[in-house]
Amino acid sequence: MMRLATGVKINLGLRVLRRRPDGYHDIETLFYPCPAPGDRLEMQRARSFSLQIDGPCYTGWDPSEDLCARAWRLMAGRYRIPPVEIRLHKTAPVGAGLGGGSADAAAVLCALDALFTLHLGEDRLAALAAELGSDCPFFVYNRPMLGEGRGEVLTPFALDLSAYDIRIAVPEGVSVSTAEAYRGVLDAAHPNPGLPLRHALRRPVAEWREVLHNDFEDTVFPRYEKIAALKRRFYEQGAVYAAMSGSGSAVFGLFPR
Questions:
Q1: 196: Cβ contacts below 8 Å, ≥ 6 apart
Q2: Which of 165, 156, 186 is nearest to 30 (CA)?
Q3: I need a labelling partner for 174 at 20 to 30 A (CA). Which of 121, 139, 181, 247 fits?
Q4: Which pTM was predicted?
């Protein structure tokens, strides 16, 4: 049996650049991995495929529609591998902009690659992950990456935040749909787009508050005061930088150790 622990991601800066003809949006962001709050996966060979989900963050969705099941179907159809049984224990918040489901799907791809000695390599696995979702390829690499395109065009970016505690909070009873977040963001006025993301990230972390921005905050915060309040609270508690992750509703803060 294979046992895996997955993590989540935070977004350091997120610019929504344009709406694409295919209905998606071009973005620019920095994905940064965090080990917690994450999920636990167990996988073993079986006579038929099954996915069992439990845990405090499982709200009863159909397991057959879970990204883990979709990851299995993708690999089984592409490489004719035998069935497996997967157990997923959900402790990562769902729909909070942390990518917990994407992390699980990437873990399934990597575990199947190892279990059946396919030797696909990171780049091929990341290409497969892109077929499942925009955030999924990042979790194959699971190291700081600039994300462009839909978020699936990744470039390694040297960034070490080990001098900071990364605290993540999710407002109780608040979730933001990605579609809702995108609906208003391109209509928001951005008279000063600021530094290009690569340049802003090279500035001292203490200066990020002035130069690093998540465009979704402009439309999400006026509608969800609890999310805006979390960001204010992190700054009141001594964070040098705080922001919403992705399209929300999670907020993170960087605190000097």
A1: none
A2: 156
A3: 139
A4: 0.92
Residues in CB range of 30: below 8 A, 6 or more apart: 11, 12, 13, 144, 145, 146, 147, 157, 159, 197, 201
Q: What is the pLDDT of residues 195-246, one digit of tens each?
A: 789 999 999 999 999 999 999 998 899 999 999 999 999 999 999 999 999 9
Q: How many domains does the chain have?
A: 2
Same domain, 11 and 128: yes
Q: Which pair of tokens denotes residue 64? A: 């057959």
Residue 39 has phi, psi (to 5 degrees) of -110, 170
Q: Which residues are catalytic?
A: 9, 135
Contact 201, 159 (CB under 8 A): yes
Query: How many residues belong to the chain?
Result: 257
Question: Beta strand pairing status for 50-54 and 84-89?
Answer: parallel
Give me the domain span that covers residue 78.
Answer: 2-156
Q: Which residue has the tokens 């960034």?
A: 159
